[in-house]
Design brief:
Elements (H helix, E strand, L loop, with lengths): L7 H17 L8 H14 L2 E5 L3 E6 L7 E6 L26 H17 L8 E6 L7 H7 L8 E4 L16 E15 L3 E2 L9 H19 L6 E10 L5 E2 L2 E10 L2 H19 L5 E8 L4 E3 L1 H15 L11 E4 L6
Parallel strand pairs: 3-4, 3-5, 6-13
Antiparallel strand pairs: 1-2, 2-4, 6-10, 6-11, 6-12, 7-9, 8-10
Helix pairs in contact: 1-3, 2-3, 5-6
């Protein structure tokens, strides 16, 4: 391992190279073995003590023993997507890509670690660095907490890159910042038969189409306009041939909202829409709902401190809170 960079310009250059290396070698949740090894080698080079947590996660600490204890968090895992950018550092692993930017989160936290280590004697309190696995649906934050990652921590901060925010701008709002999300699966059972005799069948495709239309009214006609909420149908599977009405159809989707309570209410209303869509034909609908992450809600005092720090660096005119809360979800909510 090369000697760690200490000047800010050198730290940034090293972080860029590190990010490109991580981007080229993405790993799915709970399989971040190489990524964990890279993080731990970087910490060793900086002389920062660390311990493993939640398998491929890492908890590191520096600074004095006393004082207000701050934690900084990055996530490690990639997504099961194929990359087609053609960039020199594009993914070397077919079907796996850092499409959510966790490579950048990890590299910038290593950069922050280098800067903090270079100024360790000036730190007013201890700093813990959390390199967390399995943010992409694996509840890695919860496993880190179960592993003691938050023990003794007074405040924790993280960030999520968001390309729609203009370059050089940032947001640190108080209150809800990212959505609570959940997944649902609707199964419609009818009675199949020949497509030439639909009157002898109970068509689950028609019931499913009615459901897709009805569920669009959940947000537009049942939720107050000032509340951030989304219901989306993402899959519709039915049938095997052009002349056969199938026995069943399956639809899959997501509910998302700025509060965990509203997310669950959206799921309840989506189930009602399913049964309403099935009723005219006599089809039977079953609904399975799996809540995922709760809403990410920024503590007002911590958000104000983060916004003030950002304003000092990039200027208050570059704090952009439009379009928030995001309807993407984050397991930082557990912290």
């Amino acid at each position: 391992m090369s000697r760690p960079a200490v000047g800010l310009e050198a730290i940034v250059a090293h972080a860029i190279g590190l990010r490109r290396d991580l981007h080229r070698h993405p790993e799915l949740m709970y399989r971040e073995e190489r990524t964990a090894a890279v993080v731990r080698a970087e910490l060793d080079a900086l002389g920062i003590a660390w311990r493993a947590c939640a398998g491929t996660g890492t908890v590191a600490r520096l600074g004095p023993e006393s004082g207000r204890h701050i934690a900084l968090r990055a996530d490690l895992d990639a997504l099961p997507l194929s990359e087609s950018t053609g960039l020199p550092w594009s993914s070397a692993h077919p079907g796996v890509m850092h499409a959510c930017g966790h490579d950048g989160h990890t590299a910038t936290l290593i950069g922050a670690a280098a800067w903090l280590k270079a100024h360790e004697s000036a730190l007013p309190g201890p700093v813990t660095l959390l390199f967390q696995p399995a943010e992409e649906g694996g509840h890695g934050a919860r496993k880190m907490i179960d592993g003691g990652a938050l023990d003794g921590i007074d405040e924790i901060y993280g960030y999520h890159n968001w390309p729609p925010i203009p370059f050089g701008f940032a947001a640190a709002p108080a209150g809800p910042v990212m959505a609570a999300n959940g997944e649902w699966r609707a199964t419609i059972v009818g009675r199949g038969g020949h497509a030439a005799q639909p009157h002898l069948c109970i068509d689950p495709v028609v019931a499913g189409a009615n459901f897709v239309q009805l569920v669009q009214q959940v947000v537009s006609r049942q939720i107050a306009a000032h509340l951030a909420a989304v219901v989306t149908v993402t899959c519709f599977h039915a049938g095997t041939a052009d002349n056969i009405i199938p026995d069943s159809a399956e639809l899959v989707g997501t509910v998302r909202a700025a509060t965990t309570e509203l997310r669950d209410d959206l799921a309840r209303r989506t189930e009602i829409a399913l049964h309403a869509a099935c009723a005219p034909s006599g089809a039977r609908g079953t609904f399975a709902y799996a809540p995922c992450y709760p809403a990410t809600v920024n503590d007002a005092r911590c958000a104000a401190k983060a916004a003030a720090a950002l304003a000092r660096v990039i200027g208050p005119e570059r704090l952009a809170h439009d379009g928030l809360p995001l309807m993407g979800a984050e397991d930082f909510a557990y912290y």
